[in-house]
Amino acid sequence: MVGKISCEIKQRIFDTAVKLFARKSYGLVGVREIAAEASVSTSMISYHFGGKAGIMRAIIEKYFGLFKTMFNDAVKDENSFEENVRRFIHGFVSLIRTERDLSMVWHSELNNEIPEVSDIKYRHQLEMGVDANKLLGKIGLDFTRDIETINIIGPILIQMIYSHFITGRMLEQNNTRPEFDDEFYNRYTALLADICLKGIRGVFTMDE
């Protein structure tokens, strides 16, 4: 029973921190605010995570675990490059929808300097490089040779995928917005994939 209660408290602290970091950013949230919101003492945060940075380490570890599972489910050696791109974008969007706050924390804190978590961020970025090589190798790119090209393509693709979710909370308050249901996100992922694979001119008819 004690172990179960301890796990529940740890999960409550984690979930509360994710919510607060997603709304305000890591740097603007203090340990006392997390403790008050989670209805625990600050000593409980120290006990379970060692402090605020420990929570961020746990967030990064959980996010990359989910990302890795998503990537491995989506990208297969036997698939064509186009099929892998479409499956990857669909899987990535589904991950953001399912774990929205967690995903937004990762995205917003990706380039922030947090010394206490720099080691695991670097390790996971290397792992993402290996994954990128697996996907882009289908069109002849190599992470060890074409790092500049991949470093341009990767952030562009990530920003495209996140574009809707970055403005999503504002759009949700707009009465004229479309319904953000499965049908909308199927169209969203299909359009993103088409833009990625075909370019703007390949997707839209444009006057010369």
Structure description:
The structure is a single chain. It is globular, with a radius of gyration of 19 Å. It has 208 residues and is mainly alpha-helical. The chain folds into two domains: 1-50, Arc Repressor Mutant, subunit A; 56-202, Tetracycline Repressor, domain 2 (Orthogonal Bundle). The N and C termini lie far apart (71 Å). Helix 1 packs across helix 2, helix 1 crosses helix 6 (100-109) and helix 5 packs antiparallel against helix 10 (182-198). It is built from eleven helices and no strands.
Radius of gyration, in angstroms, nearest whole number: 19 Å
**Quick one: how many beta strands?**
0
Domain count, please report it. Answer: 2
Question: Largest sheet at a glance?
Answer: none
Structural class: mainly alpha
- What amount of the residues lies in strands? under 5%
Q: Show unreliable segments.
A: none
- Identify the CATH architecture of the largest domain: Orthogonal Bundle
CATH class of the largest domain: Mainly Alpha
The span between the termini is 71 Å
Portion in helices: over 70%
CATH topology of the largest domain: Tetracycline Repressor, domain 2
What does the oligomeric state look like here?
A: single chain
The gross shape turns out to be: globular
Discrete helix count = 11
In short:
This protein is 74% helix and 0% strand.
Ordered list of secondary-structure elements with their pairings:
Elements: H1 2-24, H2 31-38, H3 42-49, H4 52-74, H5 81-98, H6 100-109, H7 118-136, H8 147-166, H9 168-171, H10 182-198, H11 200-203
Helix pairs in contact: 1-2, 1-6, 4-5, 4-7, 5-6, 5-10
